[in-house]
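Reopening: structure tokens for the zinc ion complex, inputs below.
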Amino acid sequence: MVQTDLSIVDDLVVSLDYTLRLDDGKIIDSSTEQGPVEFLQGRGQIVPGLEQALYGMAVGEEKGVQVAPDEGYGERNDDALQVVPDDVFPSDLDLEPGMALQMRDPSGQVLMAYVTELRADGVLLDFNHPLAGETLHFHVKVADLRAATEEELAHGHVHDSEHAHQD
Ligand code: ZN
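Re-run output (same inputs, fresh job):
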């Protein structure tokens, strides 16, 4: 069913085709291979600057959206660089620069960290998002819009119609 009267408001399920470039024009991500990304509008599932720009768009509509770092993945924070002793890591783990690791902070919260450098005094980890500090240049096209189910609204995320889901 084509719902041409729909435009993007909170709690609609949005299917979005996108291309993401950085300032240098290089494409670093797009929906070309995996198909449109699906998310619940208004639930913070995509970067804030992009989510804000989507309100009111209809199916088939497309536009360019430029997102500054503070509305994207944040500014880079030099305090988020931290040297961690080698013995924190399993000895069979082959650490390499660029590798993403899941770390736990003292409260048990999971944080992503990226190996920046292997040093004599330990491993230099960067807790910044890899796209922190970057201005994001999106080109987006609304592929589909539909109302969310009660269950999706309760869970706060989109359910894939092809797969059973329990949580
Ligand atoms: Zn669910």
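The helical segments are 48-54, 150-155. The chain has two domains: 12-73+132-155, 78-126. Marking as resolved unless the reporter disagrees.
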